[in-house]
Structure formats: C-alpha cells, structure tokens
C-alpha cells in the first residue's frame, strides 16, 4: 500500500512518519533515503518526507497559488516519488532537486489543466460573440512565444533548467533556489545565469 494519507494543517502527512530529523536534508542522507524507499522501506520514505515536505509544499503553493490545491499537488508528487524512487540517479543531481522537479511538474500540470478548463468555459460563452481580431492575434503571439520558450528550455542542461524554472516560473529568489537545491548561493546564481544565456541563444534573442 502506498504510505500516503490525507493532508492535515497545511502539509501532507505519511502513515507512521517519525519525528523530523534535525539534519536529515543533506545530499547524501536524502539520496540514501530515496534508495531505501526504492526497496520498499516505508520508514525511510517517512523520514524523506519529513525532511523535504515543507519545501515541496512551499513550491506547490508558489506555483498553483491555492493552499488546498497545493496540498493535493504535494500528495500527488510524493506518491510519484514513492512509486518512482528507483529511477533516482544521484549522478544527475541532488535528491532534493529531483523531488522538487516532480513537485514543480505536478503543480504546472495542475495550473495548465485549470487554464485549459477556463479557456473551454470562455470559448463556450463567447461562441456567438464577434471575433476580436486584435485579441486573437495577441493570444496567438503569446501562445507562439510560450511554445518557443518551452522548446528552448530543452536545450538547457537538467541542472540549469531546474534552477531557472524555480527562479523564474516558481518565483523564488536566488537564495531560496540555493536552499531548495541544497547548493551554495554562488552555484545557484551561476546555474541561473548560464541557463538564461543558453536560453537566450536557443531562442535567437539579440541575433
């Protein structure tokens, strides 16, 4: 059975979770907890949850802007962490960044789903309204630009992309990104700067 139960008091909880460990969020310890979780160790998963859930929930709130939905997103993300923990590769990044990437993806999916639903409702109510050609052109241009950005993000390394997404799509400061990814602030700034340069080049900005 998946060891996740409903959220209480603004943060998801896990059945049988022990008290949070003071120093449980170091890179090596989290990686070890993930490996043990991949072998079905529910105690390790509970400790992993305790060490990372506040940051995960905070990221979800930043993206979806709604505490209740953020709780659901966090639960969904940890369910995926539990089920896919065997896929974690420490050579590709820290355990915390791997978890936050899953949270961010789930949160973005939730926002996109809500936006799509709103667009469907709006389309339904405007079916018999005159077409505003200027607004249509602006929407098409915005959609094209978003498509270009998503395509350009694929040219970044994974570590550049995760730092850039947290800083510019998640709204976090450089210091917060460094804390969430378990990095020195200087390293986080470098990843964000290099990611922006590579993103600009991929989009042909300034050419």
Automatic annotation (TrEMBL):
The keyword Transcription applies. It holds the Pfam family Sigma70_r4_2. Residues 148-199 form the RNA polymerase sigma factor 70 region 4 type domain. CDD domains: Sigma70_r4. It comes from the Bacteria. Residues 1-22 are annotated as: Disordered. GO terms for molecular function: DNA binding; sigma factor activity. Residues 48-114 form the RNA polymerase sigma-70 region domain. Keywords: DNA-binding, Sigma factor, Transcription, Transcription regulation. GO terms for biological process: DNA-templated transcription initiation; response to stress. PROSITE patterns: SIGMA70_ECF (PS01063). NCBIfam families: PRK09646.1, sigma70-ECF. PANTHER family: ECF RNA POLYMERASE SIGMA FACTOR SIGK, RNA POLYMERASE ECF-TYPE SIGMA FACTO. Belongs to the sigma-70 factor family. ECF subfamily. This is RNA polymerase sigma factor. It comes from Nocardioides panaciterrulae.
């Amino acid at each position: 059975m998946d060891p996740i139960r409903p959220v209480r008091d603004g943060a998801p909880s896990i059945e049988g979770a022990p008290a949070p460990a003071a120093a449980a969020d170091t890179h090596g310890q989290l990686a070890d907890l993930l490996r043990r979780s991949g072998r079905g160790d529910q105690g390790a998963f509970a400790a992993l949850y305790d060490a990372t859930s506040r940051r995960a929930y905070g990221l979800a709130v930043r993206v979806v802007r709604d505490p209740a939905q953020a709780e659901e997103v966090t639960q969904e993300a940890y369910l995926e962490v539990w089920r896919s923990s065997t896929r974690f590769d420490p050579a590709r990044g820290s355990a915390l960044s791997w978890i936050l990437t899953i949270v961010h993806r789930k949160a973005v999916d939730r926002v996109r789903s809500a936006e799509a639903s709103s667009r469907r409702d709006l389309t339904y109510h405007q079916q018999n309204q005159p077409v505003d050609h200027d607004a249509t052109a602006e929407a098409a241009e915005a959609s094209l630009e978003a498509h270009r950005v998503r395509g350009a993000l694929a040219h970044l390394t994974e570590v550049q992309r995760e730092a850039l997404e947290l800083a510019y799509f998640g709204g976090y400061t450089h210091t917060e990104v460094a804390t969430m990814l378990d990095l020195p602030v200087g390293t986080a700034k470098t990843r964000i700067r290099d990611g922006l340069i590579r993103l600009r080049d991929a989009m042909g900005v300034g050419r």
